[in-house]
Amino acid sequence: MPRVSGHAESVLKGKGYRMTRQRRAIWEILRTSGGHLSAEEILEALADRFPGVNLSTVYRNLEVLRREGLVRETGLGHRHRHYEVGPEHHHLVCRGCGAVIHLAAVEIPSALELAGAHGFEVEETSLTVFGRCRSCRERK
To answer: C-alpha 113: how far from its chain's center?
Structure first.
């Protein structure tokens, strides 16, 4: 497996965390997946290298990576939360076929203004829009 990004390792080290073998493997799985993975999918990908690893270990490591800003947790309307690495972006999710379309991160002015009015400092934005894609609408 390729060496983990120096950035991720230095971020964790600066916060007092070690880059354990399991954490490194989880990071690399997410970094190279190019998409959204559930904790269960990550566990499945780890099974060959770490046969004794369990779901709670995956969740604990994901929480550390998420808390330190290396991984984003995303709700796509499915039963499970999904995790991803990469630039901040938003999603369109089709309730018919489950397709997920990525949108470049855009500011959400009214939400940001509302947050500021309440003295809230925004650290991250996430927008998921649910509906029906063109193909699903045309099939009706």
So the answer is: 25
DSSP state of 15: T
Instruction: Locate 139 and state its tokens.
Output: 């099939």
Interaxial angle between packed helices 39-46 and 21-33, expressed in degrees from 0 to 180 and rounded to the nearest 10: 110
HSE value, Cβ hemisphere, 13 Å, CA-based, for 136: 11
Tokens 């927008």 identify what position? 127
Query: What one-character DSSP code corresponds to residue 22?
Result: H
**What amino acid is encoded at 2 in this protein?**
P
pTM: 0.70
Indicate the DSSP class of residue 79: S
Where are the alpha helices (H) located in the chain, listed in sequence order?
Answer: 6-14, 21-33, 39-46, 55-67, 109-117, 134-139
d(CA 66, CA 88) in angstroms, rounded, equals 13
3-state DSSP assignment of residue 113 = helix
| CA 106 to centroid of chain Cα atoms | 17
pLDDT tens per residue across span 80-119: 788 888 767 777 878 888 878 777 766 666 777 777 888 8
